Amino acid sequence: MSSYASIKNLGRSSIFEDEGKLDVSYVPPMLPHRESQYGSLLQTFRGIIDNPGKVGPKAIIVGRIGTGKTALSQRFGLDLEAMAKERGSLRLQYVHVNCHLLRGSLALILTEVISRFFPNFPRRGLSSEELLQTLMKVLDEEDAYLLLALDDAEVLIQREGPASLYDLTRIHEGRLNKPLRLGLILILREAWVLSTLDQATLSTLQRNIIRLPAYGRNELFDILRYRASLALKKNAISEESLGLIADLCASEGDARFAIEILLRAGKGAERYGNQRVLPEHVREAYGSLGYPPSLLDYLRSIGLHEKLLLLAVVKELQASPEKAYVTMGSVERSYNMVCEERGEQPRSHTQLWKYMATLSAIGLVSTKISGEGQRGKTTLIGMHYPASSMEKAVLENL
Ligand code: ADP
Ligand code: MG
Predict the structure, then answer these.
(1) Fewest C-beta atoms under 10 Å: which of 118, 236, 290, 357?
(2) C-alpha 153 – ligand 2 centre gap (Å)
(3) Domains of the chain
(4) pLDDT tens digits, 185-234
């Protein structure tokens, strides 16, 4: 490479096209596998632009961490704003506040909302009742409509009590003959929080509960592939590596965790100077996040030939760095060679299957049955630990 070319390439990533697209604060244009929930939001809130002033819709989004609650609400809110703009003069503002960051204080939350309309609005002094009146006055004066999303709303309920929501959900009732200006999205992790609310508040909210189930393995795979297509260079990650991330995250169904692993694995590949994110980078990223639990405790509990078998898995994975899983047949061949090198009598085929079942039950390896793309069905062996740390740990504990 000429020195000019190397200077030009300095600081340019071999892996990322735009790393920021994996940031938690980035709102992607689409949310695969949330189409029906997006549709429910649209159905609930489209009245704000179809019949401005006539409706004050409310909905609740419920789901565990990483199920896309924040992303869904933000995507929808920004889209609805854009739709209002297309209609012409309707001024609709989507405001997303995180109740946790504002310590669950309704006064701080309302101040934050008002300051979106008046950036210099004084930060202290008014009670939440006064602030609520001020907010409605501001909306009237500006002839504006507000779609307010209260994220991590349980913090608000905990701190201010259920009555705070009562005021918000009933805000329009004391404003006879005035246009309805507020739409409300409550975002919660657990639906049981709702049972702490009084019946009146509940009745207005309960009609539109939008549930986000944890993502399944294949849904995570689609999400990862989509996010990788936005953030990574073309061909910088294989389906094999994406599939491994999906496998590792399937039990939690948490897209945030999956995207974090994708980001870290990409960083790792970059650090090693690779052009591609390999399964080993994924395993290292997973390990760097504190998963899986300590290797050594597990290693101490297994026998010599289980360790040699483990070493054989390591060698096979290292021999095929593009692969996240290797076949039992190839591991067996490698095991026989490991035994020969060490002057050990290899154990029988049947015994090896038993050892593998033990290793898999402990979690030192992961096994799955091959699906499409492979002739017949064979058992595939993979690993959640980085192969290099596994090798080191086994060799030190033989
Ligand atoms: P929650 O608020 O439920 O904890 P987030 O909305 O913060 O979850 O989602 C976590 C991460 O996963 C974010 O980076 C988000 O953009 C991403 N994400 C979640 N669901 C999807 C999806 N269906 N498609 C693409 N990215 C998603
Ligand atoms: Mg969130």
Answers:
(1) 290
(2) 10
(3) 34-212 (3.40.50.300), 216-287 (1.10.8.60), 293-397 (1.10.10.10)
(4) 999 998 888 888 878 778 878 789 999 999 999 999 999 999 999 999 99
